[in-house]
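Hey, resending since the last one bounced:
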Amino acid sequence: MMWWWGENDHMGATGWVGLAFMIIFWIAVVVGVVFLIRYLVARPGADRWQERSLDWREQGGPGPWQGKSEALRILEERYARGEIDQEEFLRRKADLSS
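The structure tokens again:
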């Protein structure tokens, strides 16, 4: 009988080539899915940018393109929460400005 395996129960050259392409295809699919998941989950700063872009709209402050440094923004937030006093705020602000 001649089935998929060919004569004498041996797979012919066409069968081996097809098997190799099938294995390569499924490996490529798995690798592609892994890279897609890593890209979607671990995009650096994607969530933080959205939070910052919403913050300036809600607070009425300058937009992210208007040059306020991240360190100065954090310093202002700490001062607003009362974590540091006015003297320390002004000293650190002067350090950041220079």
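Helices lie at 13-41, 46-59, 70-81, 86-97.

Sorry for the duplicate.
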